[in-house]
Amino acid sequence: PGGFATPHLPPPPPGADQRLWGWFVAVDEDRSGSISARELERALQNGDWTPFDIDTVKLLMNLFDVDRNGRIGFNEFQGLWRYIKASYLQCLDWQNAFSHFDRDRSGTIDGAELQQALSQFGYNLTPNLLHLVQRKYYLHSNVTASTTETYGRYPSGITFDRFVRACVVIKQLTESFRRLDVNRTGWIQVDYDQFMTTILSLP
């Protein structure tokens, strides 16, 4: 009698990991039974407590949104979680890999550190490609005023969320190329339809 009732989690699906289910329910703020990009964005954070870049969040969601409804159900969420926590560098996850290659402890990855990280992951990009990747995902310190007012001044470089995004994109592009490179020569010949199909099939 009196006081407040202790809130209870909805029962998890059979065989579900209780801890993962609890996190899924916590992220599902509107209790819809699925997670939107904005809900996931609020749940994912960089090492400095700033939110993940929304384009990175959408990219991760697209990888596992099997039914293409724009949201992530629990089964899809389990795949996403395993992907985020997957070991990449001698049983280190992305966050630890990022910290490992952030040798100057700036909170960002610069060009030299990015090259070392990608090389360890098996992606030996030419200097020209590395420059393009760095230019695409590099975050300059002069970001929008509203962002800096809310989260403070960002350092220049590639932040953790953009590092994840770069790794995912390079991985997907490399796998698509290898599927076409049946003779493993490092060269492919594709027509326009094959090229467009490959690009548009990427998340």
Automatic annotation (TrEMBL):
Where found in the cell?
A: Cytoplasm
Keyword terms of this UniProt record: Calcium, Cytoplasm, Metal-binding, Repeat
Aminoacyl-tRNA synthetase listed as a keyword: no
User: Would I find RNA-binding among this entry's keywords?
Assistant: no
Q: In what residue span(s) does the EF-hand domain sit? A: 15-50, 52-87, 89-124
- Name the predominant localization: cytoplasm
Name a GO molecular-function annotation: calcium ion binding
Domain of life here? Eukaryota
SMART domains per record: EFh
Gene3D superfamilies given in the database record: EF-hand
* UniProt xrefs under CDD domains: EFh_PEF_Group_I (cd16180)
One GO CC term, this protein: cytoplasm
List the InterPro entries hit by this protein, alphabetically.
Answer: EF-hand-dom_pair, EF_Hand_1_Ca_BS, EF_hand_dom, Peflin/Sorcin_CaBP
Protein name in UniProt = EF-hand domain-containing protein
